[in-house]
Task: inverse folding
């Protein structure tokens, strides 16, 4: 599809939730970000917004324990025309960190699953997978759960700058095979801003499906 140049402008923290009665009111479209702790979620959100300190970036995983909403405007410019759409970026807690073992073992806190299956405004969920580690069991478990629940999904393969060309091509193909979705995975580097346009266009398509 043809659209003008896309930007995310005026990003700002909106609110946090752990229960459905804390979700924002109204019908603003939501784009959610999910992945293992440390996979690069906060960095991706900051990179899309070109705002370093928006979502906290941490070397110490497992910090974010709430669903965090960021309000942003998706700006589309073509020739004389400029359109702005309000969206929420939804940063979900990372999974795969300090899981309890044995009987209490679970993929993620129940409120994450509740958000994914019941948020009326969720248009697209980005599942982030580290491009260096295409076949981690916990990511495959998350994918299976999401696919079973028919969640609209796009895979983002993170930290692409850390791989050599041949490794990168091979791992991306492996991710595409292990995590089949409507559109192929997008390789992303928050460090180099690589993949940013593809992700912005994916967001645009997800929120303009009228
Ligand atoms: N080289 C490189 N490092 C990254 C990239 N994205 C994230 N990181 C690093 O990975 C670590 C975890 O990132 P963060 O965004 O906090 O992950 P989160 O736990 O998923 O939110 C930090 O040290 C980041 O600087 C990337 O694209 N390239
Ligand atoms: Mg984070």
Result:
């Amino acid at each position: 599809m043809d659209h003008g140049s896309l930007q995310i402008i005026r990003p700002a923290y909106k609110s946090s939730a752990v229960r459905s009665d804390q979700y924002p009111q109204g019908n603003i479209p939501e784009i959610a970000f999910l992945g293992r702790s440390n996979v690069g979620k906060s960095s991706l959100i900051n990179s899309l917004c070109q705002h370093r300190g928006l979502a906290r970036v941490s070397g110490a995983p497992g910090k974010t324990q709430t669903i965090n909403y960021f309000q942003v405007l998706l700006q589309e410019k073509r020739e004389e025309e400029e359109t702005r759409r309000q969206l929420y970026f939804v940063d979900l807690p990372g999974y795969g960190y300090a899981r309890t073992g044995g009987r209490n073992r679970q993929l993620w806190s129940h409120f994450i699953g509740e958000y994914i299956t019941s948020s009326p405004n969720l248009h697209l969920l980005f599942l982030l997978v580290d491009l260096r580690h295409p076949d981690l069991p916990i990511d495959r478990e998350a994918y299976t759960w999401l696919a079973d629940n028919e969640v609209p999904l796009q895979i983002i393969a993170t930290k692409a700058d850390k791989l050599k060309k041949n490794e990168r091509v091979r791992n991306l193909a492996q991710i595409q095979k292990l995590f089949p979705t409507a559109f192929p995975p997008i390789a992303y580097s928050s460090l180099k801003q690589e993949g940013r346009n593809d992700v912005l266009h994916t967001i645009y398509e997800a929120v303009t499906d009228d």
Summary: Residues 35, 37-43, 57-59, 61, 94, 158-159, 161-162, 189-191 surround guanosine-5'-diphosphate (ligand 1) (CB under 6 Å). The chain has one domain: 5-207. The helical segments are 41-49, 110-118, 137-148, 165-178, 196-207. The CA atoms of residues 95 and 109 lie 8 Å apart.
